[in-house]
Amino acid sequence: MQEYNVLKQSGNIPLRASENNMWGTGPKQFSKIRNITMVQIKAIFLLTGILFFMTSCTEKIDIDLGTTFTRFVVEGAVTTDTMRHHVKLSKSIDYYSQTDIPAVSDAVVTIDDGITTVILEENDTLPGYYETPADYYGIPGRIYHLNIELQEAINGQTNYSASCLLNPVAPIDSINVVYKEEWEAWELQIYAWDPGAINFYSFYVYRNGDLVTDTINEIGISDDKYFNGNFTYGAPVYYFIKDDPTENVFPGDTITLQMGGITEEYYYFVYDVIMETFEYRNPLFSGPPANISTNITNGGMGFFTAYAVSYATTVYEE
Predict the structure, then answer these.
(1) 231: helix, strand or coil
(2) How does pLDDT run across 71-122, given as a tens digit for each residue?
(3) Which ranges of the chain would DSSP assign to H, the alpha helix?
(4) Distances in whole angstroms, Cα of residue 117 to Cα of each of 106, 109, 122, 311
């Protein structure tokens, strides 16, 4: 499950590890160089001149980004795991703000699957975090509706909602961890069947019980364009980077992979977040910033998602 896996950057590890990747190392990269046309050569000379001009005349410019109106932000998920699922409510802040993100407390938050409705309770020690009962779990095929009633309006709105279909997911056959000397990283590989329909996946990685992919920028996502209806033989889904001491893998370490069957809408939400916050984004050649997709009503931001999960575990051996 390779396309759009978000990999941490180190050396020549590509952002996308797709089967038709032309930007990694190896012969494919040089074949692209050999195919440069005269038009491209002229463009390169023009670009070189522009860059020379830009680097020759420099002036410090302070850009005042100003302020913007406050937006309501929702982050929440329901999975097939039996656990306390949570929904986080907060307000947006300005880009250069030095204040903490303000939580939204005292809201009435419910989740309805068309059969039962549960009321989420706000955590006593984590303001803005609303939790289901500990025995709550999602059921594939049901549509989960989130409803939020605020005590105080944000942008004139006190009611926000979102809905998401909980898709099933195939079981993982097995996983494997292999050290890649040329990339100085440990590659986590998956072996699994993909059903014949169009599917989208998320990947969370644990090492010795601790979540490694603990931010949205580190979540692996993939569609099944290159393996629809087939068995994946060791497709890479994550890289543990050797240069990062917190990611080093040692013999005896237990590695667990969680695979989720996400919706297309959530897939593109995560993709949008990654593209807009990617640390190596080039402001000169990248497209203009764009609004990140959402399924929250009334001008809210964020996403409420639901998905089935499957797990596989391995113990690393050199």
Answers:
(1) strand
(2) 999 999 999 999 999 999 999 877 666 678 899 999 999 999 999 999 999 9
(3) 27-34, 38-56, 264-277
(4) 19, 10, 16, 28
